[in-house]
Design goal:
8 helices, 316 residues, 20% strand, 26% helix, 2 domains, Sulfite Reductase Hemoprotein, domain 2, alpha+beta, globular
Length: 316
């Protein structure tokens, strides 16, 4: 068997990753949301320059597959017109923020997320490629099972806290201190946690000690299990089989929803719809067996795979 190639980084728009079916490009929607125009635009770009497949990642990002190298510059131009392009690869890599999807217009979740994204443009340098932040300060924590290194949450009394992933307790902060405190944890990690390698929870578990100024004694508030597909006050939440949509399905959603909020559960929340979507490839029932199966890209999409895992998963 050939040696396994461990990438150790995530693809982006500026720096796509080679795979078995062409280049993979990852799009990081600002505040985890794309409007209808952007959704239709992504569907069109995926159809025109790629193989028409769009994936949802566990960081609430979108990936389009099958890009030919000679189409890369055209794809970049298209994403720029859709306001989905960062000015450079470094800015794109820093903006690694996961947002709880059940926010209301004008509440603190979306405003803090936007403030954090803007601050990260000139934030700590030298963070690992997968180092990320979670803005999860609704009434219930919904991102506790999602990967993040620094978390902005609320405590059991509903007050803001900033917590290092792997720490049981967080530091109580005011609304205006939340982003600064989150960046402070990231700066400590870069300067002190084995030169900024690895992940926050790994270092704390191994015995790294946070400085007193970054420690806290506030206990995080209640957490919620991963939600099931269904109607929510914000619109229908639905799953996607194996985390993959066709360009036709994304275009259907663009024509029927005001905007789409991405989640780390390979589900999408569709704003402006009052019924579950009726397009191919979406999962609308909580008892659908596809929700219980996770399958990697598999052959021929991945060079390291030896079988079509999606076909095997569907048969299972």
């Amino acid at each position: 068997m050939s040696d396994i190639a461990v990438k150790g980084w995530c693809p982006g728009v500026w720096q796509p990753m080679q795979s078995g079916d062409g280049l993979v490009v990852r799009i990081r929607p600002r505040q985890g949301r794309i409007d209808a125009e952007q959704a239709a635009g992504i569907a069109g770009l995926a159809e025109r320059y790629c193989n028409g497949l769009i994936e949802l990642t566990n960081r609430a990002n979108l990936q389009i597959r099958g890009l030919r190298e000679d189409n890369h510059s055209s794809l970049i131009d298209g994403l720029a017109r859709l306001r989905l392009l960062d000015p450079d690869p470094d800015t794109e890599a820093r903006r690694n923020v996961l947002i709880a999807p059940f926010w209301d217009a004008g509440d603190e979740v979306i405003t803090i997320a936007g403030e954090l994204e803007r601050a990260l443009v000139n934030g700590p340098s030298g963070l690992p490629a997968k180092f990320g932040f979670a803005v999860d300060c609704g009434n219930e924590r919904v991102l506790s099972g999602a990967s993040a290194d620094v978390r902005i949450e609320r405590d059991i009394d509903g007050q803001f806290i900033v917590r290092a992933d792997g720490a049981e307790l967080g530091r109580a902060v005011s609304r205006n201190e939340a982003v600064t405190a989150a960046l402070g944890l990231a700066e400590w990690f870069v300067s002190g946690a084995k030169a900024g390698r690895g992940r926050m929870a790994t270092h704390l578990t191994a015995g790294e000690k946070l400085p007193e100024i970054l420690c806290g004694h506030a206990r995080p508030g209640p957490k919620r299990d991963t939600p099931d597909p269904g109607l929510t006050p914000h619109g229908p939440l639905f799953g996607v089989a194996f985390g993959q949509l066709t360009s036709a399905a994304l275009n259907w959603l663009a024509n029927n929803a005001k905007a789409l909020r991405m989640t780390p559960w390979r589900m999408i929340l569709a704003e402006g719809m009052n019924a579950m979507p009726a397009c191919e490839g979406v999962i609308t029932r909580a008892d659908d067996s596809l929700l219980r199966i996770v399958a990697c890209s598999g052959a021929p999409r991945c060079h390291e795979a030896h079988a079509d895992t999606r076909a095997l998963a569907a048969a299972l």
